[in-house]
Design a protein that fits this description.
- By secondary structure, the protein is α+β, with helices and mostly antiparallel strands.
- The chain folds into four domains: about 30 residues, no CATH class; about 200 residues, P-loop containing nucleotide triphosphate hydrolases (Rossmann fold), CATH 3.40.50; about 80 residues, no CATH class; about 110 residues, OB fold (Dihydrolipoamide Acetyltransferase, E2P), CATH 2.40.50.140.
- Helices cover about 20% and strands about 30% of the residues.
- The strands form six sheets. Strands 12-13-14-8-15-16 form a six-stranded mixed sheet, sandwiched between helices. A five-stranded antiparallel sheet has the order 7-6-9-10-11, with helices on one face.
- The longest helix has 17 residues.
- It is globular.
- The two termini are about 55 Å apart.
- Pfam families: ABC_tran (PF00005), TOBE_2 (PF08402).
- One of its GO terms (cellular component) is ATP-binding cassette (ABC) transporter complex.
- It comes from Cryobacterium luteum.
Length: about 450
Amino acid sequence: MESHGPVRVRRCGALRGGARARGDGARGAAVRHPRHGKGELVGWVSIEALNVAYGERRVLDDVSLRIPRGSLVAVLGPSGCGKTTLLRAVAGLLPVTSGTITVGGRLVTGPGVQRAPEKRGMGWVPQDASLFPHLSVGENIGFGLPRTRQSDDLYCEPGETAGGLFAGVTRRRRAARSRLTAPLPASPRAGARRDESGTTGTDHLTPVPITPDRSRQTSRAARIAELATLVGLAELVDRAPSQLSGGQAQRVSLARALAPRPDLMLLDEPFAALDPLLRAALRTEVAALLRGQHNTSLLVTHDQEEALSLADFVAVMRGGEILQFGTPADVYERPVDPWVAGFVGDTVELNGVWQGGRVDCGLGSLPADWMGAASAPADGTPVLVLLRPEWLTLAAPSTERQTDAVTTAIAYAGHDALVSFTLAGGLVVRARVAAPDLPRLGDRLTLGVRQNALAYPVA
């Protein structure tokens, strides 16, 4: 397999990780931008009206999702919302009730179509590394690389290194070559020639040169070495999985999934079993690696910080439905409803009244954006006012009694803290304050708002 930047060309004439080599319209053109036309998202992976049920219980309800080529999409939701079921359905591990799944213009799930998981061109990274304990790190990485006569890959017995007489030879050809190079007994009747020392010429057969292209013979070994280096384990390829740390084992699992150059990477909460410090470091490395390899990836997680910090797009799920899909900033700063707002981050919620583009609430009269599905309500309509804690600012006390506040609690987190303030009338709100600016308990301050509030219909 030859690499040409983000598109890799197979000798059979198809593109792995890209469109097919034949120039057949949209399927033969690389997707350069995630959107075209009237803001429509271009999907390298397209999931349309997908339904999955376990008996009478529907787990996925009319799920549609488009993943742009080369992007990392995180499916975020609470436990039991259906995100792992979605991942398994995309992988072909679960039958679907209805709907279609298309990858690179190729239908893998649809009416009368259910491609086997191993024929979908997908890589899978599970929650735990699930390495083969009897294989070395290098052998685990190369496990998914083919070893057939038709492949361009190197065959090595477990524990062997590439090189030597049989480098680049498949198991069958290796056995045949062994028979060819074995010394043969002298047979005068067969007309065996003797040299000046009297030794038959067949006793010192010169090994027949390996005919295939040497660059193709070593492609399997080179791919293993490339990936081991890529995940920072080049010095550990001969180690057993039992000799690895949790983070190292997960790197091996990632390299193994990347080895065949899949069209789509599926990651099932791959960092959940790691300690917090290692999880934060490893997920950043993995996201950078996937982008560097131009992989299209689908990650499922219930960790809000993980989804918002790693993904190009986030899909928020609840009860088998996708409630919102957008960039991390869109999902966090303009959530479609209060539930999504509360799930992806901390919120400050107040009762208010809509007044011509502003809301009257416990923090005073604030400029606001209407987030309801219908047009803005009439003046005087009760609304739910929503803010993020970091949108609140602190200042010296003012004469406006409605915005004065008293510091009543501090939840310290090192780099910052969530500080609780009690307003006039006993209303409590929280603001996120950087550690150097933390007030002391009992301090009187004035709260301001640096960004438009969000106004939602009252449920």
